[in-house]
Amino acid sequence: MLFNSLDFLIFFPIVTLVYFVLPHRVRWVWLLIASYYFYMCWNPRYALLMATSTAITFLSGLLIHRSNQIPDAKRRAWMRRLWVALSFGSNLAILFFFKYWDFFWDNLEALFALGGVALHKPVFDVILPVGISFYTFQALSYTMDVYRGEIEAEPNFFRYALFVSFFPQLVAGPIERSKNLLLQVHERHTFDAQRARDGLLLMLWGLFQKMVVADRVAIVVDTVFDGYAAMPAWAVVLAVVLFAFQIYCDFGGYSNIAVGAAQVMGFRLMENFRQPYLSQSCGEFWHRWHISLSTWFRDYLYIPLGGNRKGTARKYLNNLITFTASGLWHGASWNYVVWGALNGVYQVLGSILRPARERLCAALHLPTRTLVWKAVRIALTFVLIDFAWLFFRAPSFSAALDILSHVSSGGAAVAEGFSLGLNGAELRVMLLSLLVLFAVDLCNSAGVRVRTYVLRLPVPVRWACYLAVLYVILIFGIYGPDFSESQFIYFQF
């Protein structure tokens, strides 16, 4: 069930209405049923896999809690580590089988072929379950939080199952922590009109990002990437630039709808995007982009590896490992691995070059606090991030290299007109929607919250704004029979 579908337009109001009508003691049961129904709309069998991951991590939490009662310190520590290892090992094994099995065997076959040995891959009819990477990481964070003593083990399996399967953020995040969302499962939520209004406004903005901006930009991006060999270089570069905004509005739109939907029901989800393309460095970008995943890798991989506590060289290595693992998390393909590693290289080079850059700026008396300087840094950061997005969007690593070669050679010599997939009017709508996106992000970055400003307007003007945005989505949004398969990009992860 897609957020931008008619089904969800019916599903969400019914779920919310019944939720607030029911007595508090059984509301969480209703949300659990609704969440599993929401997930089973893709494939009922997927729910069995999610339930398995839920059961493993739930039991690991109880076993870790029980191990804490062991008098002998060495045995207590050993048993705690054992349950954590089994929880991570079994869940990652499931993730590996469903997501990385073919990737592993394809590369193993290629490696053995170099030595003249032919391997035959075991064939399984495996379909990647929707959102498996998201709920697996969310469940694993619970195991680690219990192990670290940051949260008590949840004694009720079904309440814990709701934490793993909570439908607004189940399929594509934000990846919530147990110390935030699981605790809220026990809270009493009453209907609050102002909170619901704020949540609905955020959902409306998310739908604008997805249906008006992302899905329209996707037409240009897909048209160019599918036929880049016949495109001039500037068209390919334009498509790469536009993909940066497509994936931002697609994933950011999903996150805003998820956060807004949860807010209507009284749940607080973490912010997942914070105007990332206004970042002045690649390091800052990753504090603003997919925040729930970035902090997950920081807390559960980078810091356990040693973080920045074991010297500069080790810090750089940990950075590279973390970002490369993040790339592999996104997809079982070398182009994702390269994308992640490239972002890791950006972090390392940024740290290495920072002292020299600061000395150079001081020696040249460059006005580093001016808006012009900030704009230059934002532009340079965007170029680096967007270059990495090429590897993310390309269907394979070899295709990414082919596209780079095509662009560097000047592209195709197009004698006749060619299509970007949109007519003139559609292109103007796309550009205008991008300007609206930029203006809103710029205002929010400057501390001028657009939603807060709109809510202070007189009631007639305020409702005129609501209706105007809804009208724009209905008139200019991309939907209907020809676009019924317009899923969110991150569903594949």
From TrEMBL:
GO-annotated molecular function: acyltransferase activity
Membrane-spanning intervals of the chain: 7-26, 46-65, 77-98, 110-137, 195-213, 375-392, 429-448, 460-479
InterPro entries listed in its UniProt record: Ac/AlaTfrase_AlgI/DltB, AlgI, MB_O-acyltransferase, MBOAT_fam
Location(s) in or outside the cell: Cell membrane
Highest taxon of source: Bacteria
Keywords of this entry: Acyltransferase, Cell membrane, Membrane, Transferase, Transmembrane, Transmembrane helix
Any one GO BP annotation for this protein: alginic acid biosynthetic process
Membrane topology, as annotated: Multi-pass membrane protein
Gene Ontology cellular component list: plasma membrane
Assigned protein family: Belongs to the membrane-bound acyltransferase family.
Protein name (Swiss-Prot/TrEMBL): MBOAT family protein
Organism field: Candidatus Flavonifractor intestinipullorum
